[in-house]
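Why does this matter for the project? Reviewers at the last site visit asked to see concrete outputs rather than summary tables. In response, this paragraph embeds two records directly. Each consists of the residue sequence and, immediately after it, the corresponding structure tokens. Nothing has been edited or filtered.
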Amino acid sequence: MTGYSFVVPPLRWSIIERNALHWRDVLGLEKEPYFPVMEVIEKILCNKMDLFTLTIVEQKEMGRAEGYTSPTGEAIYLREDVYRGACNGVPRDRFTAAHELGHWDMHTNLQLARVQPEENIPAYRQSEPQANQFASELLMPASFFSVDDTPDTVMQRHGVSHYAASNRLSYLQRKGRLHPQKNKGLRISSQTPIFPAGQRARW
């Protein structure tokens, strides 16, 4: 995440959800609560499918920017500490990696104009909120949520931060999308060895 937001074509959150769930479906991960974001980015999309280059950049070079996706979609850049953290299951860094994947998925080869402070651009027309929504949908699909979820259960199940879990719960509650009964057997720790669906993944 660079910290800057750009004006992009408008996208409904429902369309972003569909995009994110499509990736899960293609990868055979639609029933897995913990999405192995770095394995998908590095081992599959980069190394196996050669869709882009994953570049790890030293912290002194990137500064405060945690990640960056080239406008042409040729590369995703992650700051070195963020890359290591995401590989080790650090919740914030996992979200950053998913956020950059969202930029690659939605914002490749677009004409970008930076949002100015004085402009009142709605979130659905800004690159950063769109990428955040993609990351939320990818890491925390609504189908896993129920009314008795708490931020702690969401954190454990999906490997996300308390902040991301709380925001997701609030969003789904506002939309009336929390299921009345809990799905049993879906909670796994963020420390669980990842890529649990490896034998049946369709890639």
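We now turn to the second protein, recorded in exactly the same manner.
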Amino acid sequence: MTADSPESPAPLQHPGIAGEPADDDALIEKLRTRAWDPGRRFDTARVPSSWIAERYGADWFDRPNPDPRSTGSDGTVRLRSSTAEVASYYADAPRKLLFPPVTMAEVADSGFGPGGGLVSLREANRAPRHLSDWPSAMSVRERDRTAGVLTSWFFLTGGGCTMSWYVSLLADDNPVLLYDCDGWVPDWGETPHGGLSYATSSLRKWLWTWAEAAISGARFWTNDRPPPFQWSAEIRDSAAPDRDRSKE
């Protein structure tokens, strides 16, 4: 082992928010509340178009609204989970988990979370009316390994288009990283770190932000574009794909 190839990365330098909450019990309760609510377990929820028209009037669909909405072929409208329409429609819906927990100590085995939901820890979880299984951590990890993603990054959920959210298992405080698989070119000598565009200071902070719905939608930054991502020199210099260290 040489001095310029440390076994573990140095602390991550990121634009995280100071003053992170430390009450994990409160965080788990907030996550549990959203996970059990069919209208709030994801960033968006579907509401029948017929119910919208009956409740708010047929002209509701023509009214200007800053929130994104889309009408599906199944006769539903997809809305942000934080809207009054979603809260009203799901007010009396049964509170239950989409998937059973891995253990009784767990909030759930996915079926809730930012974007389309967190990755499942098991294979063959399938949501009602879905034609395919929920993404599993094992299958995603194998896919990422062949694609050159570092094994110290654990996939959390998709971030839209070619973007994905990962948690670093090695960097201090386990920051959550927004990664673009098209943001780096191996043939140019670049590493997966070149595809990073944003970091939340810790997994706890990332989950708190979502649990409290402090920022609209699935975005975990406050501007239209994420801020530049800055790595410490130590991490940048040791950013080569994982290798067999037994020979060093």
